[in-house]
Design a protein that fits this description.
Number of strands: 16
Order of helices and strands: HHEEEHEHHHEHEEEHEEEEHEEHEHEH
Bound molecules: (2S)-amino(hydroxy)ethanoic acid, manganese (II) ion
Shape: elongated
């Protein structure tokens, strides 16, 4: 392979252009899955890919595949990609870097006039974040056969709008079957979203795998009553009960260090009136750990404690685990391709386990998969202040170029 290099400025300019869609005052991005802003981001990506000579296909979950023809188009593609949807207070790089790094690889192959043997594709996976529609990574999950299509299309947001309805509304309800085709290899470039690479002063994270996740939805029901005349001893205050469970979630996380993560990110208190005792509280729990046995022990501790609080206080409780994604180990050859790419380019690198979930975690079930991390400033992500340097992003993209070309030419 000629010693090719991506054009870092062009990658940076594309990231900044995409960041204007849903750009927030604090310099972040809000492009929730399947909103009009998500559509605008998708349309811009499709336009750029068509300008780069790619053909576009969209499947029934709205996953987009931009394909650069290979010498032998009957061969399975080498695929890159990530997601364009963001958190409500998301940043410019989470997901978007992996998508636009894939486009930059295509543009670079065009610059050098390189025709790979295998076709090369850049994928945009629908609803990776799981913020508007739970669970996360649902469309790559359907592609990998983890969820069936009906389940994926039926996922609804808090207003009851389903993914199927929203895909049709924004014009991305594709014709293609979801998955069921051979992929030679899949590589996802992503910011680390944590502090390790920056702290260790490494440019590239050679991602060996990702931790497992369990997501829950819990509703505690007590009794609404007047905040004045109701004696403390006679109350069934749903927020007090929920708060005890929230504190236990945090305790479980702290008691399973290192690695355990435990978060309550969404909580709705009803009727949410300052002088009415809360009658019902809905909240979510996000548990993570790289060791499946510990993750299931965390699950058992949470269930036992929540039941205890409900029984002791006479509360009704709905407790549902809505998602379980086991820890993942990526394909050794793909991990090696990333490490070799970093070595050849002379980038300082280290092996790392991903704290976040990614579409690669599901695609890993149907194709040899690897991930490339680059540092983000202060390890901050899922935050409008998310930042990365043009140099690190270009480095990650060069490693992606190496890994993809190496796979697509043999
Ligand atoms: O939650 C995650 O790890 C990812 O951002 N969906
Ligand atoms: Mn992401
Ligand atoms: Mn994310
Ligand atoms: Mn090395």
């Amino acid at each position: 392979m000629k010693n090719m290099n991506v054009t870092g400025d062009r990658l940076w300019d594309s990231l900044m252009e995409m960041a204007k869609i849903g750009g927030t005052e604090k310099g972040g991005c809000c492009r929730l899955a399947l909103t009009d802003l998500d559509r605008q981001g998708r349309d811009l990506f499709v336009k750029w890919c068509e300008q780069a000579g790619c053909t576009i296909k969209v499947d029934k979950m709205g996953n987009i595949f931009a394909r650069r023809a290979g010498e032998d188009d009957s061969l399975p593609p080498v695929m890159m990609g990530s997601h364009l949807d963001t958190q409500p207070t998301g940043g410019k790089y989470d997901g978007v870097f992996g998508v636009l790094a894939g486009l930059e690889v295509v543009r670079t192959l065009n610059d050098y006039g390189v025709r790979t043997r295998h076709p090369v594709e850049v994928a945009v996976w629908t609803n990776e974040e799981g913020s508007r529609f739970a669970p996360a990574m649902v469309a790559s999950g359907v592609f990998a056969g983890v969820f069936d299509l009906d389940y994926g299309l039926s996922r609804a947001d808090l207003d009851g709008k389903t993914m199927g309805e929203e895909l049709a509304r924004i014009g991305y309800a594709g014709e293609e079957e979801v998955g069921g085709r051979e992929i030679k290899a899949f590589f996802e470039a992503h910011i680390e979203q944590g502090p390790i690479l920056e702290h260790e002063e490494k440019t590239i994270g050679v991602v060996k795998g990702a931790q497992g996740q369990r997501w829950y939805e819990i509703t505690v029901t007590g009794q609404e009553a007047h905040a004045g005349p109701t004696p403390m001893a006679r109350r069934k205050d749903a927020l007090v009960a929920a708060s005890k469970i929230v504190t236990e979630v945090n305790r479980i996380g702290l008691d399973n260090q290192p690695y355990a993560c435990a978060t309550v990110g969404l909580l709705n208190c009803s009727p949410n009136s300052r002088n009415t005792i809360p009658g019902e509280v809905f909240f979510t729990v996000d548990f993570r750990h790289p060791d499946d046995a510990i993750l299931s022990r965390m699950d058992q501790e949470l269930r036992a404690y929540a039941n205890k609080i409900a029984e002791e206080g006479g509360f009704d409780m709905a407790f549902e685990q809505i998602w379980y994604s086991p820890p993942v180990e990526f394909d050794a050859d793909c991990v090696n391709a990333v490490r070799t790419g970093a070595d050849i380019a002379g980038y300082a690198h280290m092996d790392i386990i991903s704290g976040a979930g990614h579409d690669a975690c599901y695609i890993n079930r149907v194709a040899p998969t690897g991930m490339i991390f680059v540092p983000c400033e202060n390890g901050i992500s899922h935050n409008e202040e998310e930042e990365a340097t043009p140099e690190d992003l270009a480095a990650g993209c060069n490693v992606l170029l190496h890994a993809v070309v190496e796979r697509a030419t043999v």
